[in-house]
Amino acid sequence: MSDASLLKDALFIGGEWVKPAGLSGFDVTNPSTGDVLVSVPKGGKAEAAAAIDAAEAAFPEWRDRTAKERATIIRRWHDLIVENVEDLARILTAEQGKPLAEARGEILYGAAFFEFYAEEAKRIYGELLPSYARDRRLAVLKQPIGVVAAITPWNFPMAMIPRKAAPALAAGCTMVLKPASATPLSALALGELAQRAGLPAGVFNVVPGAAGAVGDELVSSAKVRKVTFTGSTEVGRDLMAKAAGTIKKVALELGGNAPVVVFDDADIEAAVAGTIATKFRNMGQTCVCANRIYVQSGVYDRYLAALTKAVEAMKVGDGFAEGVEQGPLIDGAAVAKCEEHIADALSKGASVVTGGGRHALGGSFFQPTILKDATQDMLIARDETFGPVAPVFRFETEAEAIRHANDTEFGLAAYFFTKDNARIWRFGEALEFGVIGVNTGATSYEGAPFGGMKASGIGREGSRHGIDEFLEIKYMCIAGISGL
Question: What is the pLDDT of residue 150?
Fold first, then answer.
């Protein structure tokens, strides 16, 4: 690294790097090698409470700054991330395992949210309503909600944190962040850059630690007025229930079970490229990655052959190695889940086209896998795999495709490929998902709303809608205004 001071091993509370006495630490390991990178203090209830107090104390001054003043600091934070992209990428690859080129892309994508919301801070508009009486004026104000707790996942730490912090801080809120224990170093590095950007003490705090201690304190505290979480649907349900005790707002970006639908009239080359982009990004460890691939009978064999060729060409290895496109899975539990889904599919009639098991590299490396003849009764059709396993289903009619695609409790992302313009609208409107990719597997953009339907969550991140998640609407009825 060019700047070793970005690698932190302390908690960031109230603008200070602290290692509270008596706290145990937890090791952050490289999933490619198993090597320990650094030991980070394991924050608990007391540390979470201290961070909440710091955020509450910082809130009035940050809230009262002009939008332009907040925007200037947030934009400086963006610039520092871009300037330090190489060091940040090395931190991300070391703790998460993804290839270095992919890590760079994630960091720049995350930085774009700071750039976008630095501008949106100046576009939080209220309203003057037509009055029902001559001596009254009716005003609608939008004001920051207060202290925000953010709980983020390990798969995209450099993207998920900015996607929450940028709109929250732009709106005038302060934040306490609990990053995933597998990837706290990215969060702490962002905290260091926030401090360098001039963010006032207490506006942004980072407390790694156990979910049962830090997470519970954040969700249960009456001082926290909003919880924003990205993770599993199971945990999301639990957080929502706990947040009900203090009637705080929640935003939940939860699990997915994304379908890819390839019609007979699709551009097969584009369909394969789109499938690779959505299925094998981050080794299949994304909430929007393809989990079920439905291909119409007329192009099934042709598509399968082209997808197999593309998958077999991918290089697996350490994320720091030249030309690697697939790194390791995050841990042994992720490998076991891939194995479980494959075994279940094979027992019910599917067969392996390529891959199918652990990689020769050992550890948590797994072979990019394609299964053919998948059916709806298989576990892989219902449960999110979160790994590089691509099951290919066959379908005959458009009606069948929409029925199978929507046959899930989840509704985050979906993709389909066709050249029929009428079908684009018809099929897109019928899909019960919050994000739809048409003839593409890459939809991410900071200016577009991201979020799911059904059990995939509540609320939206990104776009102008994302900042509304951190604002309260206040109505003022002002009487006593006499006419001339």
Answer: 98
The per-residue pLDDT for range 185-232, each reduced to its tens digit, is 999 999 999 999 999 999 999 999 988 899 999 999 999 999 999 999
Write out the DSSP string of 31-83: TTT--EEEEEE-B-HHHHHHHHHHHHHHHHHHHHS-HHHHHHHHHHHHHHHHH
Pairing of strands 351-354, 369-374: antiparallel
Q: What are the CA-CA distances from residue 329 to residues 118, 281, 372, 438, 465 (Å)?
A: 34, 12, 23, 28, 33
Chain centroid, CA 143 distance in Å: 25
CB 114 within 8 A of CB 81: yes
- Bridge-based pairing state of the strands 11-13 and 16-18: antiparallel
- Encode pLDDT of 58-113 as tens digits: 999 999 999 999 999 999 999 999 999 999 999 999 999 999 999 999 999 999 99
Measure CA 476 to chain center: 36
- The candidate with the shortest Cα–Cα distance to 369, out of 379, 359, 383, is 359
Q: What is the DSSP letter of 345?
A: H
- Total number of residues shown for the chain: 484
Q: Indicate the residue type of 230.
A: T
Mean pLDDT (the chain, rounded): 97
Nearest one of 251, 63, 65, 230 to 147, comparing CA atoms: 63
Is residue 170 a contact partner of residue 120, using CB atoms and an 8 Å limit? yes
**Cα 159 from Cα 229, distance rounded (Å):** 13
The dihedral formed by the CA atoms of 438, 442, 446 and 449, expressed in degrees to the nearest 10: 40
Rounded to an integer, what distance in angstroms lies between the CA atom of residue 437 and that of residue 258? 11
The dihedral through the CA atoms of 343, 347, 350, 351 has a sign that is: positive
Q: Which two tokens stand for residue 226?
A: 């909003």
Q: Does position 238 have pLDDT exceeding 70, yes or no?
A: yes
pTM of this prediction exceeds 0.85: yes
Check 95, 253, 384, 461 and give the catalytic one: 253
Instruction: Please list the residues that pair with 372 across neighbouring strands.
Output: 351
Residue 253 annotated in active site: yes
DSSP 374: E
Burial track 375-400 (b if 16+ CB lie within 10 A, e otherwise): eeebbbbebbbbbbbbbbbbbeebee
